[in-house]
Design brief:
single chain, alpha+beta, Deoxyribonuclease I, Chain A, six-stranded mixed beta sheet, 8 helices, 12 strands
């Protein structure tokens, strides 16, 4: 029995090394996307495996595991070293635009509790994903007093119903499609500055076809945002991690910044901080994020995120 376990551990060490090496050359394959999304978890697992193999005196497997840990680390280490913006003292007196992002999960039965979380967030604008007709009606009925300027685009097509809730008037509100997926966008006037907001939900890469659709969605969204000449905030579930080249391209080519300055995992919610960050609030350079945190959504497989912003 012991020999069988050791053999399986040796095979695992070698397989993980192959996976980490493959990831250096190909990110956009369906399998490699799964490895990319969990690169941190694989790096930590490889370190643990190295410790086990060292104890068992299987030194070749120790080397395999350590090399795999280093190669997986190459994927995400740069993300954690982005310089944090300095906020000068006078900016603390400026009005704050509070933004929240909630993927509520279509099948979530805890609608009352989720709606209470939205109210408790006290966000000026809330992006809500996976809102079918039942969800849209529940949100509209319960939140029309607090969020009177809202746009709902419910659909039974899993899972692309989307809603944009707002306490302030939404100008030029429209439902647009990128990669065949609905988005809601509008202009809001905040602190005497017209600011463009977009709620977006990219397909989940659970299949090769969905992976292609997700990448196409992010590409078209990137090209669209790059043409906008006003301060812009994008909220959504992009179904990828910050170190994915598709997300990096969206940020860099559309001149957007990520609000999160730490890991802040959002999916799956039941894993807590051991999950992965796939929900975002991105903003253009004219905007600064002064506060960012995550929030539990009862009954959902996502955690919500909330940010506060000033506009120069």
């Amino acid at each position: 029995m012991k020999k069988t376990i050791i053999f399986l551990l040796k095979i695992t060490a070698f397989t993980v090394l192959l996976a980490s090496t493959l990831l250096l050359f190909k990110q956009n394959g369906w399998i490699t996307t799964l490895f990319l999304s969990t690169a941190i978890q694989f790096a930590l697992g490889s370190l643990a495996l190295a410790g086990i193999m060292f104890y068992l005196k299987r030194y070749k497997s120790v080397v395999y595991s350590l090399v795999a840990a280093v190669l997986f680390s190459f994927q995400f280490m740069g993300y954690f070293y982005e310089p944090e913006e300095t906020i000068v003292e006078f900016e603390f007196a400026q009005p704050r635009l509070k933004i929240a992002q909630f993927n509520v999960l279509t099948s979530n039965k805890s609608k009352k509790e989720t709606i209470q979380s939205i109210l408790s967030s006290d966000a000026t604008i809330v992006s809500v994903q996976e809102t079918d007709n039942v969800w849209a009606k529940a949100l509209s009925d319960e939140l029309k007093r607090d969020y009177p300027f809202s746009v709902y685009f419910p659909t039974e097509r899993c899972c692309y119903g989307i809603s944009l809730l707002s306490k302030v008037p939404l100008q030029n509100a429209d439902v647009t499609f990128h990669g065949g997926v609905p988005n809601i966008e509008a202009d809001v006037m905040f602190n005497h500055q017209l600011t463009h907001v977009i709620s977006s939900h990219a397909p989940s890469p659970v299949s090769r076809e969905n992976l292609i659709a997700r990448n196409q969605h992010l590409k078209e969204l990137k090209n669209h945002v790059a043409k906008i000449d006003s301060p812009t905030i994008i909220m959504g579930d992009f179904n990828t991690v910050p170190w994915d080249e598709n997300l990096i391209a969206l940020r860099e080519e559309a001149n957007l910044k990520d609000s999160r300055k730490s890991y802040n995992a959002t999916f799956p919610s039941y894993l807590g901080s051991a999950g992965i960050p796939i929900d975002y609030i991105l903003h253009s350079n004219e905007i600064k994020c002064t506060k960012f945190s995550s929030i539990a959504i009862q009954g959902s497989d996502h955690r919500g995120i909330i940010g506060e912003y000033i506009i120069n």
